[in-house]
Amino acid sequence: MAGLIDAISVKRKMFFEHEGVPYHCLDAEVNTPTARGGQTLVRLKMRNLLTRAVFDKTFKASDKFKEPDLEMVPASFLYSDADGFYFMDQETFETHTLREDMIGDAADLLTEGLIVQLSKYNGNPIGLEMPTFVELTVTQTEPGMRDSGAGSVTKAATLETGVEIRVPLFIKEGEKVKVSTETRGFAGRA
């Protein structure tokens, strides 16, 4: 049986279940009253892992949450079509389909064969976690100078997935670059 978590114990980046739905804590704030007999309250900024909605909610410090039946499994991206995005579980070799709303803006950085962490709730896929960096090929960019002298000068580059980022002037078409999945910025040559 899953353990219980006190509301006051919930910290940033923790997962918990409230009213049968899994949540991810984005921020936690404890308010302790100064008056005697006042109740300690915990304000949580939380994301619903099924709908992706984010909201704030206040709980009593003694409120209890269940630990969600969450599992992260490695999966490789296969392809996408009108019905969704298809991933192969690297442990069971099952194919899982995620809807576009479950993927979010990660769709811009997915390439065939990319290994991601698939989130499963009660055995069903509900989302994914991208690696910190992905390697993508530059498909279109303007020619730049070899040695511009200024390291902070950038130009636009379109990558193989269609996403556009800013890259240094020395990057040429056909080169592979590392892109941060968090900032969507250039992180170096691959």
Automatic annotation (TrEMBL):
The keyword rRNA-binding does not apply. Its main location: cytoplasm. It holds the Pfam family Elong-fact-P_C. One of its GO terms (molecular function) is translation elongation factor activity. GO terms for cellular component: cytosol. The keyword Coiled coil does not apply. Residues 134-189 form the Elongation factor P C-terminal domain. Gene3D superfamilies: 2.30.30.30, Nucleic acid-binding proteins (2.40.50.140). It is found in: Cytoplasm. Residues 72-126 form the Translation elongation factor P/YeiP central domain. HAMAP family: EF_P. Belongs to the elongation factor P family. This is Elongation factor P. It comes from Koribacter versatilis (strain Ellin345).
